[in-house]
Amino acid sequence: MSEHLFLRACRNEKTERTPIWVMRQAGRYLPEYRAVRAKHDFLTMCKTPELAAEITVQPIDIIGFDAAIIFSDILVVPEAMGLSLKIIESKGPSFDNPVTGTGDIEKLTTTGIADKLKYVYDAVKLTKKQLDGRVPLIGFAGAPFTLAAYMVEGKGSKNFEKIKTLIFKEPVTAHKLLGKITKSVIEYLKGKIEAGCDAIQIFDSWAGVLPPDYYEEFSLRYINEIISAIKTEEIPVIAFPRGIRNLEVMKSSPCDVVGIDWESDLSKVKDILGSSKVLQGNMDPVILLSDEKKIVTEAGKVLDKIGKDGGHIFNLGHGILPGTPVENIKALVKFIKEESFKYH
Amino acid sequence: MSEHLFLRACRNEKTERTPIWVMRQAGRYLPEYRAVRAKHDFLTMCKTPELAAEITVQPIDIIGFDAAIIFSDILVVPEAMGLSLKIIESKGPSFDNPVTGTGDIEKLTTTGIADKLKYVYDAVKLTKKQLDGRVPLIGFAGAPFTLAAYMVEGKGSKNFEKIKTLIFKEPVTAHKLLGKITKSVIEYLKGKIEAGCDAIQIFDSWAGVLPPDYYEEFSLRYINEIISAIKTEEIPVIAFPRGIRNLEVMKSSPCDVVGIDWESDLSKVKDILGSSKVLQGNMDPVILLSDEKKIVTEAGKVLDKIGKDGGHIFNLGHGILPGTPVENIKALVKFIKEESFKYH
Q1: In this predicted complex, what is the ipTM?
Q2: Would the CB atoms of B212 and A245 count as touching at under 8 Å?
Q3: CATH code: domain of residue A199
């Protein structure tokens, strides 16, 4: 498995072409996903290894991506820490009992996380069996700041006033919360790797809501702590700091790959990070709502920006949209598989 | 009036201290605003010159900002072009009849805009009288792309799939829409200047939803067209391209001042734009929810980043939040008025 295209690209080794997978590839744009979803709610799908495995493998069978990513949700970790999670897929997740202060933080548990999340490990094992060596399996977790944001806000937010006010007014308390989450995520990811994941992605989906001066102290250092704790030669780690402007800070991270959002100018990012990190991204997912001609043009632009130096994994700059026509994502994968040879 | 601190700062002339105003300063954080709002709906307040003037002047009397900005909404222009506007302040604005294609674009009117928006000019005239030369009055408009985004989506949006798909699939149609909006905005702003506005700000609130490769063609060129059409020696123009990463593109704009969002690293922006543009911004509005000590520390950081070269107007990097305690914004204004002398 370690010689698979995707894993070689993660390690910045020479590859014959650019690998491709997309965030949320096991998701609502697939009729086969919607068929399962019609019968089960989102969390049941996460917690039933047979369903999670089925959904994880669907886009490999149907679209032909170069990596699978285990179907799950970043918020299963806060749930295992004691918060009560609800996920309504169209509305986003919420917690009935958000963290409101020191007392709530003390109540959060960091022990037995792996036991409570055994269903994820079972899903990983089952998926690995079904993938049967065809493609590597990515495991993932939320970055501590992103998880803390959900845990304190109780749900998604426009301005993230609560978590940011906690950071601005009570930095010591904020660090206590982030430290507990970090400990839990480390235990969780170690279990995922042990269960068979071949690579790890850390989603810092709300990274962009921290002012630039605050990112390293309140988010990146915890991501780096996790990576240092779980990293081995065999398991590459992708960090996705969605929305940050100062991508330079990622240079000092022990991650192998940096996920780049579509708002970033990939040429500039390459100048800044290209010599130290593999880049993953970054086509705008809305492009996939247009037509094959446009998709191929835009995907070609992404390949052109990277050029012939390698160190690139093709992905979108955010999750694939539920309204994406299946033939459009198929056209993208076909194009990358057939045309990216020219850049290698 | 042209010798007022704020206008001199806009023209990058030497000033004795840094001027300060904040976006949405005539807004819900003020009990005096909420008292008026309790009796009238948002659009009635925009359309009744006496109310608009009263609300515009409130933050000058109560907080002591260095500039007033006329109370209004960017969407009065699309309304004058023929769309049916509803504003529910807590939910955001919406149009009952969004633009869905070429037919709808052809139906939009670009004539008689100034007649339909006479209530704004009347509000400007009345406000100027009430301000009585104390501070300059800023007039504003939405950038054509931001207005088009609202007009096509029908309301705010998470992914802006409709306007972006129009741009990706039908660029010629998109340009037709943007051209008509530009024509209307030019007429509108000329009227505002004639009515007495001393400076103009163009809000490109959704600039960040365009991929970087698309910003200049589908947004900035129209902003620049407007500025070239309305600009005189006396009336400085501020452009606020909220959310864009490639601030370099603003170098070539004929604007005098660039508004900087709080997500940007002001030190870097200064390196990029500081020699060609005055910078306005960029403290995170959430800082104002903390306490005086934190506010003063963070405001000091903003002043430090600009240093002693001048060319700065203090502002937030986004609108002041409704939950901001009045004593906190007062503390910020006091600090800037008393401490920014040291930097000049």
Answers
A1: 0.95
A2: no
A3: 3.20.20.210
